[in-house]
Amino acid sequence: MLKRFFSSTATLPESAAVPRHIAVIMDGNGRWAKKRLMPRVAGHAVGVERVRDIVKACGDRGVEYLTLFAFSSENWRRPQEEVSRLMELFVMALEREVEKMHRNGVRLRVVGDLSRFNERLRELIAQGEARTADNEKLTLTVCANYGGRWDILNAVNTWMKAHPGATEISEDALSAYLCLPYAPEPDLFIRTGGEQRISNFLLWQLAYSELYFTDTLWPDFDAAALDLAIASYQKRERRFGRTSEQLVQP
Ligand code: IPE
Ligand code: IPE
Ligand code: MG
Questions:
Q1: Which atom of ligand 2 lies closest to the CA of 143?
Q2: pTM > 0.90: yes or no
Q3: Could you tell me if the CB of 72 is within 6 A of ligand 2?
Q4: Which residue's alpha carbon is at the smallest distance from atom 14 of ligand 2?
Q5: In contact, 175 and 226? CB cutoff 8 Å
Q6: Which residues line ligand 1 (CB under 6 A)?
Q7: CB under 8 Å to 153, separation ≥6 — which residues?
Q8: pLDDT tens across 117-140, in order?
Q9: Which residues are catalytically annotated?
Q10: Per CATH, which fold does 21-233 belong to?
Q11: Looking at the CA of 82, which ligand is closest?
Q12: Where are the domains of the chain?
């Protein structure tokens, strides 16, 4: 049974040196490839390598939850060839990496509307999740065909079906039906690739996350770049609506 977390904004979290939960929009693969006169999909292939590095780096640094935006509900709008190649890369990554993840204590979760994926991919996702279900070092959540608005609507609709006749839903009830009920809300949000937008990522869960934007393109985002993001996070003062003075412990 996965442990459930309620909103982490209600009480002040311990000011941990390392964020417990990091959420990342891995952007810039296409531009990375274009700069090298390579097809966009070559950037995605290198991007997969960075996923492996960053999962390892997060584990080494004691991050407990890493959530990665791999494919948005809007990414179906891309050329058919690029979408197919992204699906192939996803299949290959699952085939190659699940055993390694398991050995390294990584628990894999894949969230989003998986019904649009082909059967092979859905099967690999189910197998990967089952294989790694009992691991505790780091929970890696991959958001695939995910959209923040879809997440909220899906939660409300599922909750309504489970509670016929009910007319009001609470924050805690809603949170429990969203895609990440097992994780505290992200402490640190990172977007690579220079754009400063959320692109329909975790709309509900990012309410009080510290935001970090970098021009570094995802295929160049290495452990040193992760450390810069964490260092920036460590300089922030998280107040959750309070004043600075209220944070001083007696
Ligand atoms: C992010 O890189 C990867 C996915 C959206 C799957 P992009 O493919 O968006 O790269 P840019 O933004 O075009 O450089
Ligand atoms: C966001 O990147 C989605 C992922 C990284 C999977 P995009 O590159 O698709 O975002 P927009 O559309 O430029 O905002
Ligand atoms: Mg992009």
A1: 6
A2: yes
A3: yes
A4: 199
A5: no
A6: 26-31, 71, 75, 86, 193
A7: none
A8: 999 999 999 999 999 999 999 999
A9: 27, 75
A10: Undecaprenyl pyrophosphate synthetase (3.40.1180)
A11: 1
A12: 21-233
